[in-house]
Amino acid sequence: MPKIPYAEPGQEAAGAKPVYDQLKKGMGVVPNLVKLLGHSGPVTQAMGTNLDVYFNQLSLDPKLREIAYLTVARLNDCGYCQGHHVPAGKRAGLSDAQIGQLGESGFSSGDFSPAEQAVIRFAYETTRDVKASDEAVAALKEHYDHKQIAEIAFVVALGNFIQRIGKNLGVELES
Q1: In angstroms, what CA-CA distances link 147 with 57, 87, 135, 150, 154?
Q2: How far apart are CA 70 and CA 79, in angstroms?
Q3: Which residues in the chain show pLDDT less than 50?
Q4: For residues 98 and 90, what is the distance between their CA atoms, to the nearest angstrom?
Q5: What does the pLDDT read at residue 115?
Q6: 3-state DSSP call for residue 131?
Q7: Residues in Cβ contact with 44 at an 8 Å cutoff, skipping those fewer than 6 apart
Q8: pLDDT at 106
Q9: 106 DSSP 8-state letter
Q10: Whole-angstrom Cα distance, residue 126 to residue 72?
Q11: In this predicted structure, what is the pLDDT of residue 104?
């Protein structure tokens, strides 16, 4: 149960309405996480921008994006995010076995390439320790250019950001 009420469409702050409209058009629904933030126009706008960047503007391969995000969601035990990103991960080419290994075991699993293992390790260490080790960053540099590393870091940070809001405010998966 959410710890504050959802700002349902029509109840949202004035500045939140354009984000609600954009999400409804693009996703067919206003996600509950956004409705928790819909009480504040500026906060909803910021979240809308982040979601737009994540889903529409990154050049990062969708499979890598979902590997990074799902690693964070699994480590944070975020059922809401897993509810959205497990299907997205499957659409991006991840198998059930791979999704099940995301987290600590994923960075040594033969089911992932060395480049994918580097993303998992970076996401794991960043989520667990806030700062990834120099070795984890060096592993990313072996496989990715600066733009890709910046986007991987954004995805990992965004996952942690979103999950801290959702878990603290009791977001529920949409029915």
Answers
A1: 13, 26, 19, 5, 11
A2: 11
A3: none
A4: 10
A5: 96
A6: coil
A7: 12, 13, 15, 16, 19, 20, 34, 37, 38
A8: 65
A9: G
A10: 9
A11: 66
Burial (Cβ within 10 Å: 0-12, 13-18, ≥19) of residue 63: middle
Tell me how far apart the alpha carbons of residues 102 and 67 are, in angstroms, rounded to a whole number: 7
Domains of the chain in start order, with CATH, are 14-57 (no CATH), 62-168 (1.20.1290.10)
Give the integer Cα–Cα distance in Å for 33 and 171: 6
Cβ atoms of 115 and 107 closer than 8 Å: no
Residue located via tokens 């954009």:
22
Main-chain phi, psi angles of 54, to 5 degrees = -60, -50
The Cβ-side half-sphere exposure at 54, using a 13 Å CA radius, reads 21
Picking from 165, 43, 70, the residue whose alpha carbon sits closest to that of residue 127 is: 70
pLDDT at 25: 94
CB neighbour list of residue 58: distance below 8 Å, 6 or more residues apart: 65, 151, 154, 155
**Residue 162 confidence (pLDDT):** 97
